[in-house]
Design brief:
With 308 residues, the protein is mainly α. The protein has 15 helices and no strands. The chain has one domain: Na+/H+ antiporter like fold (Up-down Bundle), CATH 1.20.1530.20.
Length: 308
């Protein structure tokens, strides 16, 4: 459970630094900029290079379930945004942040704690071929669509901005260098920079974390709806799909647990980078992390109780 403790600890550090006047919104933006422009491209570069193909018949259902959970969350939250008349920035922040799960930094330690080390193979598959690919492609495209700066941009300029977004550049470089041995020094540098993503990103999120009653009242509806969809409803839809596709046993439980993880830190950073309600994106990540520490074990217990 050390990963979950790291997440909680970094969030609290950021919150404490804000309370003591050591970091403000400008400092949080600088940390987020460092992550997006330097650390995150190294993470995506290494992640793409590490992807491994396996037996399609054994892996496609967990991956499909991850994508189904994403599409389900996207559809449900879009409907909610129209019904509740959220503004453009709020809708963008929710669709970017609350549709993809934190299946690596929170998910992998939590899965290992709940199911054991042998479960990490399926959990990593859902993370790499599901969440990682989604946040590197669809999430960035959604952010571009809802960003105020990009509202009047042409299709060509949006595509150009997408392809030049540093994490996407990292993914493309990882793709073209797969199977190529890189120098040990370069490998060490990218590893060190990639390791900064979690602590720096979470401290940045923690700085923006607010327990102000006014802020909670203002964002209460989108926060509650988004987390209900992310932690409960979209995993339930993924569960129905996985059962229909024949997935059973521990592989099913691991897959649904990953689908039910809290909103991804990286997705929150993408929302912040596109100026989509950074404070709401931060709250979704932070509150979602603490919420998932309850709901993910609850999903495991429910599936066991149902004999699935």
């Amino acid at each position: 459970m050390s990963g979950a403790l790291l997440v909680a600890g970094c969030l609290l550090i950021g919150w404490a630094l804000r309370r003591r006047g050591r970091l403000d919104d400008a400092g949080a933006n600088a940390l987020a900029r460092l992550v997006v422009d330097a650390a995150l491209p190294c993470l995506t570069f290494r992640g793409v290079r590490a992807l491994r193909a396996g037996d399609a018949s054994a892996v496609w259902v967990p991956v499909a379930a991850a994508w189904i959970a994403f599409v389900a969350a996207l559809a449900l939250l879009w409907i909610a945004s129209r019904a509740l008349k959220w503004d453009r920035s709020t809708t963008g922040a929710v669709l970017v942040t609350a549709t993809v799960g934190n299946t690596a930094f929170v998910g992998l330690p939590l899965i290992e704690g709940l199911f054991g080390r042998d479960a990490l193979a399926t959990a990593t598959l859902v993370d790499q071929a599901g969440s990682f690919v989604i946040v590197s492609t669809a999430t960035v495209m959604i952010a571009e669509r809802f960003s105020v700066q990009s509202a009047s941009a042409s299709v060509a300029s949006r595509i150009k901005k997408l392809l030049l977004f540093p994490p996407v550049v990292g993914s493309l470089l990882g793709l073209v260098t797969r199977g190529v041995t890189i120098p040990p020094s370069l490998d060490a540098i990218t590893e060190r920079l990639a390791s900064l993503v979690v602590p720096l990103a979470l401290v940045s999120v923690g700085v923006r974390l607010s327990f102000d009653r006014g802020a909670l009242r203002r964002d209460g509806a989108p926060l509650a709806v988004a987390l209900l969809v992310k932690l409960v409803l979209s995993p339930a839809i993924a569960l129905a799909a996985a059962l229909a596709l024949g997935l059973r046993g521990q592989a099913l439980a691991i897959t649904i647990a990953q689908c039910a993880m809290a909103p991804m830190v990286t997705a929150g950073l993408v929302a912040t980078d596109h100026d989509l309600r950074p404070e709401l994106a931060s709250s979704l990540v932070a509150v979602g992390v603490f919420g998932s520490l309850v709901t993910v074990p609850a999903w495991r217990a429910a599936l066991a109780l149902a004999g699935l």
